[in-house]
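Standup, Tuesday
Yesterday: got the pipeline producing structure tokens again.
Today: sanity-check two examples.
Blockers: none.

Example 1:
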Amino acid sequence: MNYVIFDLEWNQPPVETAAVTEPVYLEGEIIEIGAVKLNESFEPVDELRLYIAPQYYTKMHRKIASLTGIHDRDLQSRGVPFPEAFAEFQQWCGEDFAYMTWSMSDLPMLVDNMRLHGIDTAELPVCYDIQRMFSREIMRENSRFSLDHALEVLGERGDVAHDALHDARNTAKVCGHLDLDVYLEEYGAKAFAPEIANTAYESADALRNDGAISAFACPWCGAAVSCEPWLYWEKNTCRSP
């Protein structure tokens, strides 16, 4: 079993009205994948950096370019289409692996970009949230801490942030201070992320009477989710059926 620490950088639409909405609402289009591979003993053994040429948000957002140092010319000269980059990333990960990330913000972005390009998300592996492990096991708090703060607390000198490979390396340094053999079972999550339903209903009553709307699973752990009764407005009165 390998453990793949990955980090993503993504571009954003210039304005909200320019956002892609089909086949997914695309908050960001991935432009860089950085990853560090750990072996079964949680030792770094390999690393990978991939640049991706955006197909939808093709002009780098000014703030994103300033934050990441990635500019249009970089993606034009080194970027490849997302399906090609993701295939290379998956091949590099190997056959038996799990993901690790700093927070759970990167995995949903990966899922959205996969769906954008029609890539099956059903076989994504379990993902471990290193940020949550650090917060609860080192800081003994439920608060979320930045990666830079974690490195400072642990006395580690990290690479410059907002670079996908650097952030993956920095996360690997935090892993070196965690008893991962003990913690992994508690902090794993899986991106089940069911496909978005686009069902049209003839009326509000038809919607409320569709049991499938209120019977679904958690998109991360797969557990059944129970809904509260419907609340709706009728003649300025809030009622519960």
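Example 2:
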Amino acid sequence: TEQQSESDDLWLKPLSELSVIQQEELYQLGVRSGLRMHKFKRTMALSRVQRVFGILKGLQPESLLDIGSGRGAFLWPLLADFPQLAVTAVDPRQDRVNDIEAVHRGGIDRLQAHTMDGCHLRFAHQTFDVVTLLEVLEHISEAQKAVDEAVRVAKRCVIISVPSKADDNPEHIHLLSKERLRSMIAAAGARPRFEAVLNHIIAIGSI
């Protein structure tokens, strides 16, 4: 039918090609079809996110791998602030990857997502200009392996952020000091340097 054809057009077109009215129609169509709205996590105002963005603006990378993207605390503001940057996101949880893939299908062609363990990346050496590991290492038992893999697939540098103080998050299995991060980055074959942010450590490993 003609109405079915119009619905198909709404599903298939990128959001950038839809008018405001068509976007609202698409939203209502999704609700009627039983789709759920996902609340993406955005933390643009956090000082550590701003500091990482400052580093990235100095580097001007052409491609970036974000390991452990989760709910997108860093990913969503990254896409907004770097509109030309090709971003690949990986996370071990399929449901989170599904959400990111939905954003890709919605019209963000420069965003790719893969279900992947950060300790076993299925990418060739030096695939990405920059690799980010933000608020990830404190969750991983094999933290050194994750750093090794990040350095392996990076052309220019790896950016890492971790808490600098203990907290009550039950998912944080260890607290990494600046000295520990320095030795881990050096062991992976990169040159470490650091920037201080409130309650966090940002480490940059240059290749």
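Quick observation on example 2: Residues 1-5, 39-44 have pLDDT under 50 and may be disordered. Helices lie at 2-12, 20-32, 47-59, 75-81, 94-105, 143-153, 178-188.
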